[in-house]
Automatic annotation (TrEMBL), chain A:
It comes from Denitromonas halophila. This is Aminomethyltransferase. Transmembrane segments: none annotated. Its EC number is 2.1.2.10. The glycine cleavage system catalyzes the degradation of glycine. The lineage of its organism: Bacteria, Pseudomonadati, Pseudomonadota, Betaproteobacteria, Rhodocyclales. Belongs to the GcvT family.
TrEMBL record, chain B:
The glycine cleavage system is composed of four proteins: P, T, L and H. GO terms for biological process: glycine decarboxylation via glycine cleavage system; protein lipoylation. This is Glycine cleavage system H protein. InterPro entries: 2-oxoA_DH_lipoyl-BS, Biotin_lipoyl, GCV_H, GCV_H/Fam206, GCV_H_sub, Single_hybrid_motif.
Length: 360, 126
């Protein structure tokens, strides 16, 4: 039986088309995925992301433990509310999950992980806590809901929907969060637009959703979330990287912090032994068709493969992420095997779209 | 569910309309367009191509996925809908008005054997 979020009944009542996502019964759209996509690029849309899991890590060893557990370095976090994106690697350097960690204090962090990997992540974290003997406590919160409000007007409309929230969140810079009553309001997201991700008690989720809708925020499903994140050049776990993928081959080198040579994080030795062998680039199809995951890409430097692909509603053409040989230059013309035909595509630097603007 | 009584259907969600000139017009059902979501690309067969019953001969791609379209009966393709090609979203707007291709059946009786609206309603309900 599929799991449901605190907003499930609201989605069903709104006529959402529901699908299974990582064992959760989630809205894929509320009518038109493309209209939802455009709402986020031009105005404001909201997503139920309560299927993701929030964990609190507390205790005297919280900072040193996370500096071992994560490939990015939480030592960069010194201001309460500051967030950091990181991979959690296995000893072979493969990606167990990608996550966001918020700093509340040196002995208190909030970690938000993907839905499909949550059980695996918690088991891995507990195993590492035991192995290291870290003096920390890990608490999983299934009593919380998360709503992402995204788009150029997302913050203003959120302030209309949550009385008193503007004074506490107007000064937030990107990748910072603030506690507002029972809510954690973070200026983060997965769309390439400005906006907030709001964590709140499950019992308050439906009221906030309805208040946001009344403020003119469009309900959006996982379908639009996928096309938005693809345009924004953001990886999806399980699609663009997994346990067997090095972050160095998945366009995530910028999240791996090797600067402190004494920081022996899990997976570091494997990454040092195996430098990047491929690179993640964007593809734009130059002919009629749609790029999808797992299509073979032919280049002068050898073959590669697409990991995610779709029709971009903003660019009105097919786009993809592809893992290609290191020698393929930006702006090269390559060929993609689409349903048995080889069609021409151009390699581009990611992202495709940021803050409503095409970048290619 | 919108399933016009005068059309024939397949289990793979194509609709078929018999024309006075002996050809058949083929599209995808309203149920199919609804399940696919926003349609962004069509690949349609060229006139003159001879197809077997059940042969893949067109592709409908939505933002979500690609879906093969099959020839409901054996025959020769006589036309593709170029207007739909240029406006794939029109299939979402009206799946019965915006057909995909026309075919001249090798054997007119083959069309009689296709599903009627009541039988297709059961397929679509599954």
């Amino acid at each position: 039986m599929a799991r449901v979020t605190p907003l499930h009944a609201v989605h069903v009542a709104a006529g959402a088309r529901m699908v299974d996502f990582a064992g959760w019964d989630m809205p894929v759209n509320y009518g038109s995925q493309i209209e939802e996509h455009h709402a986020v690029r031009s105005d404001a849309g909201m997503f139920d992301v309560s299927h993701m899991l929030a964990l609190d890590l507390t205790g005297a060893d919280a900072t040193p433990f996370l500096r071992t557990l994560l490939a990015n370095d939480v030592a960069k976090l010194t201001v309460p509310g500051k967030a950091l994106y990181s991979c959690m690697l296995n000893a072979e350097g493969g990606v167990i999950d990608d996550l966001i960690v918020y700093y509340f204090a040196a002995d208190h962090f909030r970690i938000v992980v993907n839905a499909g990997t949550a059980d695996k992540d918690v088991a891995w974290m507990r195993k590492q806590i035991a192995r290291i003997g870290a003096n920390v406590t890990l608490d999983a919160h299934r009593d919380l809901a998360m709503i992402a409000v995204q788009g150029p007007n997302a913050r203003t409309k959120t302030w209309h929907a949550i009385p008193g929230s503007e004074s506490a969140s107007a000064g937030l810079k990107p990748f910072f969060a603030a506690q507002v009553g029972d809510m954690l309001i973070a200026r983060t997201g997965y769309t390439g637009e400005d906006g907030f991700e709001i964590t709140l008690p499950a019992s308050q989720a439906a009221d906030l959703w309805n208040a946001l809708a009344a403020a003119g925020v469009a309900p959006c499903g996982l379908g639009a979330r996928d096309t938005l994140r693809l345009e924004a050049g953001m990886n999806l776990y399980g699609q663009d990287m997994d346990d067997a993928t090095s972050p160095l081959n998945a366009g995530l080198s910028w999240t791996v912090d090797m600067k402190d040579i004494d920081r022996n994080f899990i997976g570091r030795a494997a990454l040092e032994t195996h430098p990047a062998s491929q690179k993640m680039v964007g593809l734009v199809l130059l002919e009629r068709g749609v790029l999808r995951a797992h299509q073979t890409v032919f280049t002068d430097a050898g073959e590669g493969e697409t990991t995610s692909g779709t029709f971009s509603p903003t660019l009105q053409q097919a786009i993809a992420f592809a893992r290609l040989p290191l020698d393929v230059a930006e702006g090269s013309t390559v060929e993609v095997d689409i349903r048995g035909k080889r069609l021409k595509a151009r390699t581009v630097k990611l992202p495709f779209v940021r803050n409503g603007q095409a970048l290619i | 569910m919108n399933i016009p009584a005068e059309l024939k259907y397949t289990k793979s969600h194509e609709w078929i309309r018999r024309e006075d000139d002996g050809t058949v017009t083929i599209g995808i059902t309203d149920h199919a367009q609804e399940a696919l979501g926003d349609i962004v690309f069509l690949d349609l067969p060229e006139a003159g191509r001879v197809v077997a019953a059940g042969e893949e001969c067109a592709v409908v791609e939505s933002v979500k996925a690609a879906s093969d379209i099959y020839a409901p009966v054996a025959g020769e393709i006589v036309a593709a809908n170029d207007e739909a090609l240029d406006a794939p979203e029109s299939v979402n707007a009206d799946a019965y008005a915006n057909w995909l291709f026309k075919l001249k059946p090798a054997n007119a009786a083959d069309v009689d054997a296709l599903l009627d609206a009541a039988a297709y309603a059961e397929v679509a309900a599954d």
